[in-house]
Amino acid sequence: MKKKQDFDWLVLISSGILIIVGLALIFSVFHVAPNADAEKTQNPYFLRQLLWVAAGLGAMFVGFSVPFRYFESLAYAIYAICMGLLILVLFIGTGTGAQRWIALGPIRLQPSEFMKIGIVFVWARVLSGQRGGTDRVKKVAIALCFTLLPFLLVLKQPDLGTAIIMLLAILPVFYWRGVRAYRILFCISPVVATLLVAHGEKISKNPWPFGIYIVAIFVVAYLKRSDLRASLALIAANLGIGVFFPFAWQHLKGYQQERIISFLNPGSDRLDQGWQVFQSKIAIGSGGLTGKGFLLGSQKALEFLPAKHTDFIFSVMGEEQGFLGALFVLVLFGILIVRALFLANKAKGEFTSTVCIGIAAYFFFQALVNVAMTTGMAPVTGIPLPFLSYGGSSLVVSCFCVGLLLNCSVRWFEY
Amino acid sequence: MFIVAALLLILVGRLFYLQRIKHAYYSVFAVENQLQRERIIAPRGLILDRDGVALVNNVPSFDVVLPWKYKKNLHAVVRGLNVYIPLDSAEIFARTETWEKKHGGAPFPIIPDANKIEISFVRENVDLFPQLRVKTRSNRKYRMGVFASHLLGYVAEADDEFLAENKQRGYLTGDMVGKTGVEGACEEYLKGEDGQGVVAVNASGTELGDLPHMSRSPVPGKTITLTIDAKAQAALENLIASRGSGAAVVMDVRDGSIVAAVSLPQFDSNSFARGIEKAEWDRLSTAAEKPMFNRFLAATYPPGSTLKVVSTYAILLNRVVNPAAALVFCNGSHRFGNRVFHCWKPEGHGSMDLYNGFVESCDSYFYEVGEILDVNDQAGASREFGLGSPTGVELANEARGLVPDRDYYNRKLGKKGWTQGLMLNNIIGQGEYLVTALQMCRVAAAVANGGYLVQPHVIKEIEGTPPAAHPKVKIEHMTPAIIEFLERAMRGVVQGPHGTGRGSRIPDLLAAGKTGTAQNPHGEDHAWFIGYAPADDPEISVAIVIENAGHGGAVAAPVCRDFYLEYFKKAPPESLVTQERVKAEEAIQTD
Q1: Within its chain, how far is the Cα of B157 from the centroid?
Q2: Which residue, A172, B104, B126, B284, has most beta carbons within 10 Å?
């Protein structure tokens, strides 16, 4: 039984606007001056994306109408299908540079996108309820194992961005399922410290990020001083990495150092990635407060923007619609994420609630990393912006997620 | 929730920074991206001869280029173009490897020196290859080919050293710059100021139109007018070339302007202008006859008896002997201590005073004087005539030659190494003396103009620059009596019945000169002749040295005569155009 008055219109409207904005941007990106040749004025990308929106609405409907208990029971099956597709990519994958897609006639599927939802279902299934037993450490370990498999497969493609998003998204899910934030911090802080030190020492030559990070660690340790042993261990671990990193680094062989550097700084491999980000910043910066107007972006039109219809579509938004347009997109994502968190809180079923958190985490981290990348704050790793980037798989999965959120909004009381 | 809000706020802050605070900064780049700026290299200045005949100018050639910002499309473009125009793709891709390093972001020439078919194909198929451009390039053209190469010099790609020294002056790697000769010496005037073309381009790189208000026209290089007489230069080159290798300089005795400057063998400056092939360069730089060596400026030769002009000045100035006294009876040799010095004429000259000793170039006479002439007095006289130091002509890499004095010998041979015996060779120009053809031409000019050392120069006028002053300096201790004696003696060499320079004599022209036969360690004697004409109202002086050609009187003097015939447009004497000419030359066995 559904309660109509609980239907979350905000989620539907904000995601609907995002989809429309995305369509408009893709239309603009592939728009050519009307005086060009007739064959060029057709906009195949826009039409194809329009079809994908139709498919996405279908997926949204499925997500909305199927009760959560079915998803819960099918979680492992869905996960298995997605894994099968990911393994298939290894063998018959296509794509220039990275093997990410499976060609099905005229359409290309990106299994790593579908894996996002498969993995969220598995997380929710493993971590919620009493079925897996009450041993939380064991549950966390199982969830991590389920994450590690697709993580490695995606990393192999290689698709560093999507792989990292998977790891990031699991953290809020753990927190939601009762793992204490302090413990999570304890686990990830050495990793973060290593990355910050290595990046600061070897690539950016900027010690400030690590310095600020260490100060933050001290603050957290002080706040948690009741658990003195853990606090001291936290400080010791992080400081230790900072102090001993140079010694450890010297013990690495030359090629090992190079591999680590190119992993941390993918731009160094390809000469023109610094250029790409610079062009993206030019597009956004030259947009100013109100932008250059729909269809009028010069950076976009001049093909200076790399991957402007996929990973860098936010730059087109920033250029044509300016600060206000970019802010508008961020606000819509903010509404979506906040509503998802609200629904997670409201939902009675642990599985439902956990799925909502997973979805919120995905939207949040993808938007965050993508926008940070296009504005030059994060390395270029290749992450699509949900709803806006061209690409069917991402759009269908995002719409399916919206369907799940809407589903939750009307069935929040179901277990 | 708090973390979500905080991180999203950071993004908003970043957007605000980019779009509000740095908006103007990035807008500049956004506009710049729609423009294509292209450096327009200024046409290089012309080089004219004294009468305004263009010796060096520029001719256009066309390259099909791809602006370097489209380098990612290079392979696709070359493959596409190859369908219509046969291209050597491998060669093109090989050139791209080093392009950025050598030429920065300059447009890459896919088809250098494109022909008419290729140019019109690219122009007519803009829709197929919107990113391609046809770029006009100006090539240096040496209109007379193998002509005055050492004087004019050549242009070639600037080397790293040059670029480092001229950073501020807008040179880029790959620019053609003057290397030697006038091209090198006048680089700053010839270069001009590069301009900039600005073109609006659309999405695919198709040109939409020029933006003249943002463009800047290049300022062409200045025209250089030389003092060279192209006809005289060509005539002298032909004359020397028919005798072998060597150098010759013709100078206006009144102001030092150089009428002709020959160095043979030479090269075709045009072969450098388009980028010389390595094989050609190797051939030029390693050939035994050294075609890249400037023989009128950088080559030093022993002066032989032409130095007797200077020696005679030293003798008269220092009153070493009574010039009128018949000091020596030449029997073909001269004994000094236990050594015997030979006169060039084995049968001897008989009774000799200074005048006859000079005119007949009697070595025995000068050996006798050499026993008492101080080495430093001769060195001083030589320096007064400008030997031992560069003349200061505008061209680079001028040799200074060598004037040995007592200090020099003591340094070379150890303390007290100097002995008077060395003077016997020095005084006839066979010791350590080394001179350039240019220096000796000035020596002849100094006698011709009444004892003034002129400033040799090849540049008559640089467009837009006030003419340079070329002051002549009086030879410090020259007296009217000495100059009169030298003039009379040099006339005697050519006009006198026993003069060694009779071979340069032509009717209706009073000429003066001095022959020389320079023994040298490299083989046959070098044939020297220095002189001037007309002797009664001197206009030009000439110095000719022909390498390993034998006697100056027999080889060099007739070359000078033929040059006079060309230069003064005197009809050659009947006797000389016939077979007798050859016999006459053979008959003159002189020094």
Answers
A1: 19
A2: A172
Same domain, A251 and A294: no
Is residue A329 assigned to a domain?
yes
Indicate whether A411 belongs to any domain: no
Q: Are A271 and A250 part of one and the same domain?
A: no
Chain A, nearest residue to B201 by Cα: A302
Chain CA centroid to CA B10, Å: 69
State the angle between helix axes of A136-156 and A160-176 in degrees (0 to 180), rounded to the nearest 10.
Answer: 170
ipTM score: 0.77
Q: Under an 8 A CB cutoff, do A341 and B1 touch?
A: yes
Domain span holding position A232:
180-264
pLDDT, averaged across chain B: 87
Instruction: Identify the DSSP state of B431.
Output: S
The three-state secondary structure class of B51 is: coil
Q: Residue A196 has which token pair?
A: 């910050």
Question: B152 with B183: CB under 8 angstroms?
Answer: yes
Quote the domain boundaries for residue B530.
230-269+292-587
The Cα-based distances of B244 to B231, B513, B548 in angstroms read 20, 22, 9
Banded model confidence at residue A161, pLDDT cuts 50, 70, 90:
confident
Euclidean distance between CA atoms A41 and A30, whole angstroms = 9
> Closest to A337 (Cβ–Cβ): which among B4, B25, B30?
B4
The reported pLDDT for the residue numbered A272 is 47
Any idea what the CATH number is for the domain that residue B79 is in? 3.90.1310.10
Closest CA to A277 of A297, A242, A304: A304
Strands (E) located in B307-347: 328-330, 333-336, 339-342
Q: How many CB atoms lie within 10 A of CB A29?
A: 23
State how far the Cα of B75 lies from the Cα of B80, in Å rounded to an integer: 8
pLDDT digits (tens, 9 = 90+) for B313-372: 999 999 989 988 888 899 989 998 888 999 998 898 999 999 999 999 999 999 999 999
SS3 A361: helix
Q: What whole-number distance in Å separates Cα of residue A63 and Cα of residue A51?
A: 18
Residue A285 distance to chain B (closest CA, Å): 4
Residue A356, amino acid: C
- B19 neighbourhood in chain A, CB within 8 Å: 284-285, 287-289, 318, 322-323, 326
A96-140: per-residue pLDDT in tens?
Answer: 666 778 877 777 888 899 999 999 999 998 888 655 556 778 888
Burial of A354 (0-12, 13-18, 19+ CB in 10 A): buried
Q: Is residue A108 part of a domain?
A: yes
Q: What Rg value do the Cα atoms of chain B yield, rounded?
A: 32
Rounded to 5 degrees, what are φ and ψ at B102? Answer: -85, -35
Q: Which residue of A has its CA nearest to B200?
A: A302
Name the residue among A282, A284, A334 with its Cβ closest to that of B8.
A334
A185, two tokens? 């911090």
Give B70 to chain A, closest Cα distance, Å. Answer: 10
The enclosing H or E element of B185 equals helix B181-185
- CA dihedral of residues A125, A129, A133, A138 (deg, nearest 10): 50
Q: How far apart are CA B424 and CA B446, in angstroms?
A: 25
Domain-embedded: residue B16: no
Helices within B41-88 (DSSP H only): 74-84
* Tokens 């080495």 belong to residue: B375
| B172 Cβ contact partners less than 8 Å away, ≥ 6 residues apart | B39, B103, B104, B106, B163
Pair A147, A187 in one domain: no
Q: Which member of A302, A323, A368 has the closest CB to residue B20?
A: A323
A287 to chain B, closest Cα gap in Å: 6
The rounded percent of chain B whose pLDDT value lies above 90 is: 46
Length of chain A: 415
Verify that B329 and B311 share a domain, yes or no: yes
Contact (Cβ atoms closer than 8 angstroms) between residue A18 and residue A333:
yes
Neighbour tally for B112: CB within 10 Å: 17
